[in-house]
Amino acid sequence: MDQGFRLREATAEDADVLADVHTRTRTAYYTAGGMPEEELDDPSACGERRDAWARVLAAPARATLVVEGLDGAVVGLLTAGPPHHEDLDASMCYELYQIGVLAHAWGRGVGGALQREFVALATAAGCAEGVLECWASNTRAQRFYARNGWRPDGARRPGPLDHDYVRLRLKLVAHGF
Fold this sequence. Notes:
Blueprint: E1 5-9, H1 15-32, H2 37-40, H3 45-58, E2 63-69, E3 74-81, E4 93-101, H4 110-124, E5 129-135, H5 139-147, E6 151-157, E7 165-171
Parallel strand pairs: 4-5
Antiparallel strand pairs: 1-2, 2-3, 3-4, 5-7, 6-7
Helix pairs in contact: 1-3
């Protein structure tokens, strides 16, 4: 890609780097939302995340992409697939489980490229809507998603620090995708 990065499908060999990027992006948004960093430090969590990413990469119904900088280092990730929510029809909705971009790559178009890839994946799956959950205190992500056409649908679930996770939807047909 001409922005100084490239997207590729993640492989089983990426489990460690995905766990690292996930941990670092998670820390960035939770601390920005007011959570003390020491509450996020759990020595066993990285190993658990690595194992979780290995399971994600082995799941055929999920799509997982990484973004590499020109030096080959992973600076972002995307994972998506059928919705986890019982009230959603998997034939109509595709869920964006996570977009994560390392802070040093913010503002370089990485998130926008991943957003466009999500739309392409959802469209290829024949879905008319995208769905995701976002922590209410992650205002940077909320603004990003709003700029890209995502809107709250009213569903919420409890999150850390008494700040809910809010569910957002993107109508793919309405956007001409």
